[in-house]
Amino acid sequence: MSEHLPEQPQTPRPRNWVGSTHWSAVLAAGQPDSPRAAAAMEELCRTYWYPLYAYVRRRGYEVEEAQDLTQDFFVALLEHHWLKEANPKRGKFRSFLLGAMNHFLANEWRRSHTAKRGGGIALIPLDDTAERRYALEAITDLTPEKLYERRWAWSLFERGVNRLREHYTAAGKARLFDALKSFLAEDIREADYTRLAAQLGMTHAAVATAVHRLRERYREMVREEVAHTVADPAEIEDEVRSLLAALS
């Protein structure tokens, strides 16, 4: 994947730029009276439930307890107003979230998961596929922190792919996206150009241009996702490199 996300010059941002979406969601969720709070927490929970679940599992908790811990962590963020203390200037969003989880595991978990399982606030339904995904983790000797970083990286890249799919679908190009999406992570050979040209009714040159544009748009969307998780645009390229390193 790294070969299709090469370093690029930073895109200039206005001086009052602030990482949006995720940090904005955190700040909105930290305001109980905000109409965005519930939606913000749901977005955060859906996006980062699995990286945190994998972290908790690797810390040694069993399946059901890890599910409850992860679910209750997001509830605790909201109920205990921890997010009021969040500040984008203090570091990356993934570091903030991991630190908050460690605080939760060390100080906040006191109740038996058996006694409360199925109770409390349900931000989103439990992810029944999470344990199957965890069982398939290719590298079994990763530390909890390294596994968290790896799954965090995948979450951001997956968000980029999903946004790219939506972009192409909205433009009436869903078929083109489906035909080319595998080349976001794979090299394209001469035979592939020929096959795709015949399949799509396009010229060889048009396919080459389409693949190039797809990859460029993907790079942009990944960097936008990364931008949402850092406090300053100057950090984007370093964070992209860190995420790619976590996947290697």
Topology:
Elements: H1 22-29, H2 37-58, H3 63-79, H4 93-108, H5 113-116, H6 130-135, H7 144-170, H8 174-180, H9 190-200, H10 204-227, H11 236-247
Helix pairs in contact: 1-2, 2-3, 2-7, 3-4, 7-8, 7-10, 7-11, 9-10, 10-11
Protein described:
The chain is mainly α and 248 residues long. It is built from 11 helices and no strands. The longest helix is centred in the middle third of the chain and has 27 residues, at 144-170. The protein is elongated. The model is unreliable at 5-21 (pLDDT under 50).
Give a short overview.
By secondary structure, the protein is mainly alpha-helical.
How many helices does DSSP assign? 11
How much is the average pLDDT?
A: 78
User: What share of the residues does DSSP label as strand, in percent?
Assistant: under 5%
- What proportion of the residues is helical, as a percent range? 55-70%
Spatial shape = elongated
**H and E order:** HHHHHHHHHHH
Which ranges are low-confidence, i.e. pLDDT below 50, for 5 or more consecutive residues?
5-21
Largest sheet: none
Compute the number of strand runs: 0
Give the oligomeric state of the chains in this entry, treating copies of one chain as homo and distinct chains as hetero. Answer: single chain
Distance N terminus to C terminus?
9 Å
Radius of gyration over all CA atoms, rounded: 20 Å
Helix-strand makeup class: mainly alpha
How many domains would you count in the coordinates? 1
